[in-house]
Amino acid sequence: MTKFFKVFLLPYIIILVITLISFAIFYTRSAVIIEDKIIEGQLAYLRQIRTNLDNSVTGIVHTANQAASNPQIRSFLHINEPYIGSNVIRLIEATNVLSEYNIDNPFLISIVAVFDHNGLVISPILASRLAYFYPYYMHIEGQERHEWISQIFSNNYHSRFVPTMNAGIGHGSYEVIQHITPIRASYGNIGAIISFIDSRAVQNLFRSPISDEGVKNLIISSSGDVISLMADISDISHLPWTEAEEGSVKFEHNGYNYLMIYTSSNILDWTYISVIRSDSVLVELNTFRQTFVLIILIMFSISLVFSIIFSVRQSGPVKKLQETISRQMPLLQHSFMKNLLDGKLYKNDDIANNITSLGFDLSGTQYITAVISDTDNTMDLVKLAKIRMLIENLESLHSNKPFRHQSLSIGGNELVVLFIGEDDDLEGYAHSFLFALENSLHTNNVNCVSIGVGNLCINLIDVHKSYLEAVRAIQYYAVVKPSCIICQFQTIPHNNELYFYSDEEERRLLNLVRNGDTEGVRTVLNSICGENITNRQLSPNMMTAFINHLCQGIFKIDRIGTVNNEDVEKINELHSMFYNLTDLEKLTRCSQLYIAISESICNQKHSKTHSIISEIKTICEENFQDPDINLASLALRFNLNEAYLSTQYKEHTGENFYTYFQNLRINKAIQLLSTSKLTIHEISERVGYSSYNTFSKAFKRKTGVNAGDYRKLLKT
Question: Within 10 A of 171 (CB to CB), how many other CB atoms are there?
């Protein structure tokens, strides 16, 4: 027995003990490395979020200060009766001023001016008494009007932020951060500019690069107020506070270990924080430890069992990835349909690629969009679920028809149904389906619902137009015939009453010009002009109104900072002679200016990108030996998105950045091999590689031989 123990068992026990000790050392070291990588990555991400939010929110604050200093708005500090005489004209002008301040920033929902002494509220779309504005147009959840006014004017000498609150603005429901900018007069009358910042947009930007499980993100002001919250944190008193501007702190709370990563903004006086539970970020390491121990315990078992366990272990990450993609697919599909309805997809190739990758079946030759909306602002989740159930029941009854549907919830108070068909009577089917839905709504006591129906279109690019037509039909019949449930756009009188150029279309056109997307500008102009001039056959008065409306956008473009002086002069020239031109001359000059300004901005961006890439090459040439030089650090240096910089670099140089930088370093290494007596390890460090193995692989991939053999070839 003693001999058996020494010869057979003892060596295996020794091997097992050594393996366990090695595992313990490896596990401890790996935990430290993983934690450092998490801190480094999350801190870099927080810095990027800080930069983006500082720029965007500072822009909103700057806009609010401009509005507070605008003489047309400040004039109401001296007016007690704003609705008398010429004051009405001033109200219209002030409303137009605010609408111009309201178009540039994606985080800005709306901006309003409030005056305490005369009870006046001016917004981009209306001017009204405070008693009507709050709560009929805007209200803060759980806050009465007098509480809101007290909050605005309690400290009228300093600009400040009000933490996130749920608010209703117009027909939408938002989570808003309020920024209050005082408007002061020398003799006591006071007012304020209120900027409503979309907290959900902040939250969408502030998404953790690591798993959401166990991660809580928030923004806290220097006074301790929670500005915006990305997780349910009811009590932040347990968070450890520090005087440092950025870093990480470990702490324990309720029996769990936490890691707090933070960085502060000197511009906004905000602190951006990620709180991560340690066991959630080390879950992969814990899984590895458990699996490793399991392998130790079964290492004396038969090889077949070991192989099965190993195979199951290896298939785990793939299965997890598939499950993650499967969970996210509905969100990706929802985002694609939302962009399609908003008109953000205007290229057939983009739409086809998205449909293929998302597994959609939108193939067809005819499309009709229907919008189901409430008429009394009572569309809650229960009501929405009832309508969805009724639609699903009707779909099952029509499953034998050669038509399909795609439904999508928009903003919580709209349900969009996209009818898809081939060459059959899709219009007749859609109308019969919607009339059946109307009867089902009535039978099931689902009241105060309107169904807007857009015109039939023959490609997916025009689906957004059908969607806008359905919305327009609901808005039209809400005024002329409130009792109408099914509102068809084709029944609206078009020849002399309406032209098609909504605020959404104008914002879309201006954004395309601002981005220098000349092809998109041409597409939108052709679509808008074709619809109004060719299809609608507008009356002369309506044609003039449409062209004047289209030209008004040109006069807003000169406020874009990237417009050059030559284009500004052309805009001013058109403005000075505008009323002396015929409709055709206006339309021609306006269209040419939209395209010319878009091309000019595109050329400016191209020139700027070329300059940045030249500077990047200079930095790489001068600092190739720095191991920290990479695409991510360069993108951060130039305040650009890494993926965007990578795409622009390849478009301008014909090769990707990784290939260029690797070739640069290997060429420098070849020079050192031929001109110096440094060792291979020293040369790898001299050319910026922190890992000798990485250098060896890169060198052999570039030259076909390893560095040592290459030096020998040089000597021969």
Answer: 13
CA distance 95 to 112: 9
pLDDT of 398: 65
Q: How many CB atoms lie within 10 A of CB 497?
A: 12
Rounded Cα distance, 377 and 172, in Å: 9
Distance CA 517, CA 427 (A): 35
| Stretch 555-559: mean pLDDT | 67
- Distance (Å, rounded) from C-alpha 648 to C-alpha 150? 51
Distance CA(160)–CA(157), nearest Å, equals 10
Q: Which of 362, 324, 330 is nearest to 345 (CA)?
A: 362
Tell me, what DSSP letter sits at residue 167? E
**Total residue count of the chain as it appears in this document:** 716
Tokens representing 90 are 């001033």
* Angle (deg, nearest 10), helices 583-623 and 565-576: 170
Is residue 300 classed as helix, strand or coil in its secondary structure?
Answer: coil
Query: Which regions of 69-154 does DSSP assign to beta strands (E)?
Result: 108-115, 120-122, 127-129, 138-140
Percent of the chain with pLDDT over 90: 0
Work out whether the CA dihedral 239, 243, 248, 251 comes out positive or negative: negative
Cα distance between residue 466 and residue 452, in whole Å? 10
pTM of the model: 0.39
Residue with tokens 């993609």: 325
Two tokens, residue 241: 């506070």
CB pairs under 8 A, 24+ apart, for 20-24? Answer: 20/296, 23/289, 23/292, 23/293, 23/296
Q: Can you tell me the distance from the alpha carbon of 294 to that of 284, in angstroms, rounded to the nearest whole number?
A: 15
Torsion of CA 374, 377, 378, 382, to 10 degrees: 60
Residue 25 backbone phi and psi in degrees, to 5:
-65, -45
Q: How far does Cα 72 stand from its chain's mean position?
A: 34
Is pLDDT above 70 for 35?
yes
Residue 484, SS3 per DSSP: coil
Q: Where are the alpha helices (DSSP H) in 134-237?
A: 145-153, 199-205
- Bridge-based pairing state of the strands 366-374 and 246-253: unpaired
Q: How far apart are the first and last CA of the chain?
A: 64
**Backbone φ, ψ for residue 444 (5° rounding):** -95, 15
Q: Is the bond into 209 cis (omega within 30 degrees of 0)?
A: no
For the chain, percent helix, then strand, then coil, each to nearest 5?
Answer: 60, 15, 25
Q: How far apart are CA 495 and CA 539, in angstroms?
A: 6
